[in-house]
Amino acid sequence: MYKTGRTKAGAAAVASHTASMTGDYEVLNQILTGIGIIMPETLNEVEDAIKVLTLLGGKKIRGRRVGILANEGFECSVAVTPFMVTLPAGKDHREDIARKDSNTSVTIDVFEKTDKPMVISLDSGELHGPAVEMMESAGLPCFRKTDRAMKALDVFLRYSNRS
Predict the structure, then answer these.
(1) What confidence tens digit (pLDDT) does each residue in 26-76 have?
(2) Helices 103-113 and 129-137: crossing angle, nearest 10°?
(3) What is the C-alpha to C-alpha distance for residues 154 and 79, in angstroms, rounded to an integer?
(4) Contact at 8 Å (CB) between 4 and 10?
(5) Domain edges within the chain
(6) How is the beta sheet containing 142-143 ordered, strand by strand?
(7) By the number of CB atoms within 10 A of the CB, which of 8, 61, 131, 139 ranks highest?
(8) Burial class of 100 by CB neighbour count within 10 A (0 to 12, 13 to 18, 19+)
(9) Separation CA 79–CA 97 (nearest Å)
(10) How far is it, in rounded angstroms, from Cα 86 to Cα 106?
């Protein structure tokens, strides 16, 4: 649940809306998180939670052993060993993500064959856009920042498959 009107200015703006519901954000946050409702702080967190809870819906949680594949060494030091994605052939390189043995195609194949949760982080600019599009089209949750991927995966682990 995303709550607007958390600041005085925000509450004043929300109060002008006919369907407004304002109140003390901290009280509401404590109550709702206490009963297991996700309370994202930003719209990016709302989008990321929807992405992982939807795309990882069939994956099984068996503890905290999950996968995050990323292509940047710095960000991977936060998460996991670097994963270098291949790109479509172009004037600056000869790699081709359409090949069955490309890292992108293999990643899609692994994702489809396993029930283990995993997310992808590709933070190398638009050069990797085609690889991200290919994986997202195949249903893999892709992120452009590793911290967002990790936070979204944490949401999945905490809130999915709950009894």
Answers:
(1) 777 788 788 888 888 889 999 999 999 999 988 888 876 666 666 655 555
(2) 20
(3) 12
(4) yes
(5) 1-39, 42-159
(6) 67-70, 118-121, 142-143
(7) 131
(8) exposed
(9) 24
(10) 10
